[in-house]
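User: Can you predict the 3D structure for this chain?
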Amino acid sequence: MRRAGRLLSKGARRGNTTYSKGTLTSFSFKTTTPLHVESRRFLNVHEYLSQELMRQENIKVPRGKIAHTAEEAYQIASDFEKEGIQDMVVKAQVLSGGRGLGHFDSGLKSGIHLTTSPEDVRDVTSKMLGHKLITKQTGAEGKICNKVYVAERLFVRRETYVAILMDRASCGPVIVGSSKGGTNIEQISEEHPESIFKVPIDINKGITPDQCKEVANKLGFTSSALHQQATSMIQNLYNLFIKRDCTLAEVNPLVEDHQHQLFAVDAKLNFDDNAEFRQTKTYDLRDKSQEDTTEVQATDCGLNYIKLDGNIGCLVNGAGLAMATMDIIKHYGGTPANFLDIGGGATEKQVTEAFRILSSDKNVRAILVNIFGGIMRCDIIAYGILNAVNNINLKIPLVVRLSGTKVDEAKHILKYSGVRVLSADNLDDAAATAVNVAKIVSMAEQVKLKVSLELPI
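Assistant: Here is the predicted structure, written as structure tokens:
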């Protein structure tokens, strides 16, 4: 959750790991080499789509249209100019926060530009489309910009911040806001934490008129006209949050313009993946071009996968065990290449696809399989290993630790299969072995020794 999640209490945090609704949201390791991690737990849609959804709920947003080419952006700006709108803003539609402080690989600074003519709009758009925007959230690889949002520019009297999100601490939705909000909400939360307020909502009762008025007052909209607008907007924002199964509905900034009208200038909506079955139209808005291709492949296979920057691939069942596996890899001096939870009901085919995904990462030098068989049977993992070796020609060294349901059968399958694996009876030995194997392979590559590690005998 780009901003709002950082403003909540740290009660849901454990060590260096953050959980949300029983599912991994983000994590970090204490290391001199930072790992870039992005959550894939919730659907995230582009700003222009978020604004359209808000418009449908009678939340006032600036006028704007989407453009896929520089000429299309020029035509939109020309139409605005005919209507008397000369000041416009061009926003790169990239699924990342901090666009305004980012830069393009084309050399263009910032993903948000103010313009005063259709020609300016066309020029800026041409330097955005087809290029990658690099922000603090995207990492050095950046994200491709395939479309821009051309909108009218508002002349702002003041900016505020408001968001609704699911909060474990309050067991339901909570409104987070600040009268000093705007684009620098993170800095404000650090320098003036007293300016941030939170209003928990009883999800069974819904938001009350008094709570809407309370939020409006705390945002500083005290005059009669503004207070009425703010109260109505908060109610509509909550309606959208519930109706669409949102996990985050953020307006940053919520502004008062020079005519004393309130607008949601920048909108961000995230949606609960568990509600996809009843939010099919919303999920049709997903832009897979903004996601890592292997993560999209994993999702299509029913796997929970997040790519990291290490060289030890992890195949684990259960989010908690996956986190523990990555932690212990770090403890022994290694770096995990991914978070991969195959869940409790994975099939042989899914296990094989998991190995295919891991082996497609060119940074992986060893794979650690750590399975505690409860619902997930160890023999299915064993058959998945055999399928991976035979079907995808897996040559990356495998370290396998199995425990639980059907573990004896699984060890028998691997022992008499003709497949070479490095077995371990506990997680400490497995992690230490995986780290050492990865180091050996990496050292050999550094001195340009040709290493051939084949699993089949």
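Residues 224-243 form the longest helix (20 residues). The chain has a mean pLDDT of 87.
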